[in-house]
Amino acid sequence: MEAPVCIRSATLADSGIINRIVERSIRVGCALDHRNDPLLVSHWLGRSCVDLISSHLADPHFYLCTASFEDKPVGVGMARANGEILLCYVQPESFRRGVGRALMHNLEGWLRVRGARNVHLNSTRTAEAFYRHLGYRQTAPPGLSNGLQTVPLHKPLSLSA
């Protein structure tokens, strides 16, 4: 039996590890999206600096959480109270171990408690199948964001989950 994934609210002390998780997930796990183009990678990583993370931790309209597996930090998720999932990144060596699912379940629960009836996000092509497996559906044609193709996805939240 595999160890459970542990999710907890992030703190300011987690900023460095959050940044490293996001960077590794983008560089390795999302290579099909950015095609190892240094400019695209740099632009994508520019959104996840420690200062940005710190400001979101201080804002009650945002929720940032971390995931640990076998006592190692392996994932990060972030949601905005308006129903938007902003981040769900997992260390590539922890893919397909339930980390992403646990993060999404936690983020959706946080949104549900705040009265959100729907959740939405923009997925990369790499992550699209993962989100669809969790019940998300495409809401509009794919678009471009910072040079990357993204797919807008949506999911209604049940009140009883």
UniProtKB/TrEMBL annotation:
N-acetyltransferase domain location: 5-158
UniProt keyword annotation of Transcription regulation present: no
PROSITE patterns to which the protein is assigned, alphabetical: GNAT
CDD domains xrefs: NAT_SF
Keyword terms of this UniProt record: Acyltransferase, Transferase
Keyword presence, Transferase: yes
Pfam families, per the entry: Acetyltransf_10
Domain of life, per lineage: Bacteria
InterPro entries for this protein: Acyl_CoA_acyltransferase, Bact_Acetyltransf, GNAT_dom
PANTHER family: AMINOALKYLPHOSPHONATE N-ACETYLTRANSFERASE-RELATED-RELATED (PTHR43877)
Protein name: GNAT family N-acetyltransferase
